[in-house]
Amino acid sequence: MRWKTLLALGLAVSTATNCYAATLIRSATVANGRDAETSLADVRIDGDRIVAVGVLTPQKGDVVVDGRGLVLAPGFIDTHSHHDEKLGEHLDATQLLAQGVTTVVFGQDGGSEFPVAKLFAEREAHPAAVNIASYSGHGTLRGEVLGSDYKREATPAEVDRMRALLDADMRAGALGLSTGLEYDPAIYSSHAEVLALASEAAKFGGRYISHMRSEDRELWAALDELITIGRETGMPVQVSHAKLGMTDWWGQADRYLAKLDAARAEGIDASLDIYPYPYWQSTLTVLWPERDFDNRATAEFVLGHLAPPEGLLISADSGDASHVGKTVAQIAAERGEDPVTTVISLIRAARAKDGDISVIGTSMDEGDIAKLIAWPHANISSDGAFEDLHPRGAGPFAKILRVYVREKKLLSLGEAIRKMSSLAARHMGIADRGEIRVGAIADLVLFDPDAIRDNATTENPGAVATGMRRVWVNGVLSFVDGKATGERPGRVVRRGHSTPWPAAGKRSD
Hints:
Blueprint: H1 2-8, E1 23-31, E2 38-46, E3 49-54, E4 63-66, E5 71-74, E6 76-78, H2 94-97, E7 101-106, H3 116-125, E8 131-134, E9 136-137, H4 138-146, H5 156-172, E10 176-180, H6 191-203, E11 207-211, H7 219-233, E12 237-239, H8 253-265, E13 270-274, E14 279-283, H9 296-306, E15 312-317, H10 328-335, H11 339-352, E16 357-362, H12 366-374, E17 378-380, H13 396-407, H14 413-420, H15 422-428, E18 444-447, E19 468-473, E20 476-480, E21 483-484
Parallel strand pairs: 1-4, 1-5, 6-7, 7-8, 9-10, 10-11, 11-12, 12-13, 13-17
Antiparallel strand pairs: 1-2, 2-3, 5-18, 14-16, 15-16, 18-19, 19-20, 20-21
């Protein structure tokens, strides 16, 4: 019987109301998500809400959970996720829950379900164990309007058609506009086009999040463009998966953050999200901004300044699947040729089959990553996915707690949790989540701070994190000691802010 299983997991069911009984978590170290402080406290959940925090007495019918020696925190919010690609096959979301992630934000890098209402309807009909939210993707809208004729600037009429599609997504509850300006078809868009669409999202109180035009050669101009959008629209703007992805820029994280600090001093709500790995994953062709794939000089620059041959690990190859798991350096050695020749031929072979190559590229400096993570306005994200070769799909939130809190002591426990909960919620405009307080939604995680650790690597990218004891999503116990309970209480989280953003200089906050 299902009720016997639930009782065995410590989740009682009221026979009178057929509802979940109240849960009292006692004597936990509570990190409220709002600040860096922690305190010993009890927390009671009733229904989908936190109803009491403090020194509490068990009531008749309470399910009592012993939190001694454990940390109770708000559920973590992954503000940049690609787990939507396989979520329908992983509705229990064990990979996410094991890290403490209770909400994932989709529609990233300019790519979203079309229309966003379709995604929301699917997840409401078939809920997952985690909550989902989504941006409307500029690249998706551009593809719908321009089709295969996208290698040019859009006409004013085409921009208007994109605005109409964006309006529908915003009315459905999209958080705002996302862009992936290094990718086709958005790489061909003008600043005016992007600004027009961002302004449209701003009318609905939406936000702007961007994989910028460049994370390497033209990094500083790309950052200026994002800040300009914030200045001209008054809306919050966020850098996706922030990085200095070129060796020439290593050690310049202070310059990067100074630009964002200056923007904030001007009244622009600029922020970033970041994952704790020195390697990214994307298409190999994204490193050729001119799309001149046979250009040896470009290939030499890529391998000399962006990612070395031994730092380009093939994760998918339309030209030859046997290359997966090998580096460009290894393939070049097998062929007895120089890496520049190899990388050009790999791209040529994949494109001949109307495909591409995905790579995990090592391009970042650990010192820069640490500085970006520590910035007060940086929240944590994954940029991860299910069934992927990059460990960021299964490990980043646990890695923050292991490496940057426990080992390096770069962040206090409370500050790390703030970056993964309330700050992430604020950056996304998500209300009633990300904090432990009376009235907040009961997305909660209970973990052992001395044992929490990431286990995912490029050799075993799906290895789930350990040390997470319990996870509640909307008040429902969804994960216990390494296993999902089978409950799927996740909800669609729609945009919370609904009025237009005022001009940047006129905001009162």
